[in-house]
Every structure is written in C-alpha cells, then in structure tokens.
Amino acid sequence: MADVGGATGHVLLELGFGVERSEDGLHGSAPIVPEMHVPGTDVLRLSVLAAWVDMVTGLLAADVVGPRVPVTLDLDVHLVAPPHDLAWVHVRGRVAKAGRTVVVPTVEILDGEGRRIGFGAASFVVSPDPNVRMPEHTGLDGRRPGLARLRQPLAERVGIQRQAGGAVVLPRSDDGLNAAGTVNGGLLALAVEEAALAHTPGATLGSMSLRYLQPVRVGPAVAVAEVRDGLGSVEVLDAGADDRCAIIAATRIA
User: For labeling, which of 20, 102, 200, 202 is most exposed (least CB within 10 Å)?
Assistant: First the structure.
C-alpha cells in the first residue's frame, strides 16, 4: 500500500493529491503540473496515475482490514488515450470485493471535465505479521488537493539514474518509503515506466500491470525491461538484497 506514514516531506505528497470520502467510496484529485509529464511531452506520466491508484485502493483496503496492514499483490492502470495537457485528474474508487483473505478495489480515472480517461484495479492481502499495524494518519486521507507542488521533474526529484543497456536505478531514500520502511510501490512504478521508455524514446505508456512479489527493503531498486513491438516485460530487483526480484510488470506503449 502506498501510504506515506504521515511524513510531511514525503515525495508523494509533493504530487498534490488529496482524498475525501463519499457515500460510494473514495474520491481523490490533484492539479497537474509540467513536472509530472513524460519529459519532452505534455502527457501525464502513467506512473503518477499508478501511484494515485495505489493510494486510493490502499486506503479502501485498509478500511476493510484495518488496523491490520493491507499488502499489495497486484495493481494495473489502463488509459483510453494519452492524457495530453490535463489541468486536473480525479480518481474515484470503490471496493469491488471484500473477502476474508483478499480485498479488490477498482477505480475510474477522470479528467477535469469528468470524462473517463482510464481505469485500474488492485488486489490486497492482509499482512501475515499480526504485529504490524496501520499508522494512525496516512498523510493522505482528508488532505486538500494541491496543498503541495512538485518542483522538479519527478524522475529527477527521486534520483532516477539510467544506466547503459537501459537499466534504471531508483535509490532508497527516507522520503520515498512507506510505513513499513520499504520503498514505496508508487515510486517503483516510476522505475518500471522509466525502464520501458528507455527502449522507446519519445513514446508514452498507455497500460501498466504490476505484480508485487516482495518489498524492496534494502535498495537501490533496479528495473530492467525488454520491449518488443510496444509490449514491455519489466523486472524490478532489490540490488542490496542479492538482486531478489520484487516486481514483475507488463507495459504497453500508448
């Protein structure tokens, strides 16, 4: 789950996303700034949307299993078309299934005019450690949209580095962790996106599916992609933990 543990300096809070509760679930929204775009375009990064989908679905899952912690099993985001020149994005989420072991929330993604531009879903399971509890404040629930603003391009802000051959390195930093002290899942989506785009300069992503195998505890996270005909296969490894595979992902060029 992409909570920020109430940390006022967390990088995800700089994305300006705010969440409020409604009778039919959770509504999140944020103003879009150029630093959220894929470099050289006016297209919103798919990884930013993935981070917001993770926030909304994670909060919905926590409502079901709390005070236990929901652990993300998988997450996917799909766009109707490249989201050009957006002013606002709204994410509306609801719980599609609340079983005894698995919770599945779904979301709709809308532009500032209320038009549907995409959708997503995630699956969560309760943490097997009964001693792990959700923080009292996630730093997201009830936060006003636009309260903070990203001041650097997102990849630059988190220290993303591209290596020879297309590998992408995401450093572990205190302002990029979740409440469990592991690298935030939304930021790992950014590493996946960067690895896929390294093979397709000038393109943007229209679809991303993530399977979370284990958290990145040590770091840095290293993402490696293979892309053919616009379809990407990406692995994210925890380089500080014997290159254990943390995420397997699929991407599709828009």
Answer: 202
pLDDT at 252 over 50: yes
| Site of tokens 């469990």 | 180
- In whole angstroms, give the CA distance from residue 10 to residue 174: 8
Q: Which fold has domain 11-253?
A: Porin (2.40.160)
* Two tokens, residue 154: 């997102």
Determine the average pLDDT of the residues in 58-80: 94
Percent of the chain with pLDDT over 90: 81
Looking from the CA of 11 toward its CB, the CA atoms found within 13 Å total 27
Among the residues of the chain, which ranges form H helices? 46-65, 154-157, 185-197
Mean pLDDT score of the chain, rounded to an integer?
A: 93
Cα–Cα distance measured from residue 181 to residue 234, given in angstroms and rounded to the nearest whole number: 24
Q: How many CA atoms lie within 13 A of 72 on its CB side?
A: 35
Do 24 and 42 meet the contact criterion of CB atoms below 8 Å apart?
Answer: no
pLDDT per position as a tens digit, 159-169? 999 998 889 99
Instruction: Measure CA of the first residue to CA of the last residue in the chain; give whole Å.
Output: 26
Element (H, E) at 78: strand 70-79
- Residue 143: the pLDDT is 80
